[in-house]
Amino acid sequence: MMILRRDQSFRQAPTPDIKRTILDISERTDMTVSHVSDEVLYTGLIEMKELPGL
User: Fold this and answer.
1) Do the beta carbons of residue 21 and residue 6 sit within 8 Å?
2) Could you tell me how many helices (H) and strands (E) the chain has, helices first?
3) Cα distance between residue 14 and residue 30, in whole Å
């Protein structure tokens, strides 16, 4: 469930542009965009307990 403030639109994204964010992380860490995406997905799945942590 998404909680919105009164001044927010239902069409407004709750987070910044994910493509730009991943590209920024890639540039800061010298990792490829693919590697950053994989790390984000893997970390998210562990946090959701969909995958066992190492």
Assistant:
1) no
2) 2, 0
3) 27
Q: What is the pTM of this model?
A: 0.58
pLDDT tens across the length of the chain (54 residues): 455 555 555 555 556 688 888 999 999 999 999 999 999 888 887 777 776 766
The C-alpha R_g of the chain, in whole angstroms, comes to 15
Domain ranges of the chain: 18-47
Is residue 51 within 8 A of residue 45, CB to CB? The reply is yes
Shortest CA distance to 33 belongs to which of 46, 45, 43, 20?
A: 20
**Position 28, amino acid:** R
Q: What is the distance between the alpha carbons of residues 13 and 11, in angstroms, rounded to a whole number?
A: 6
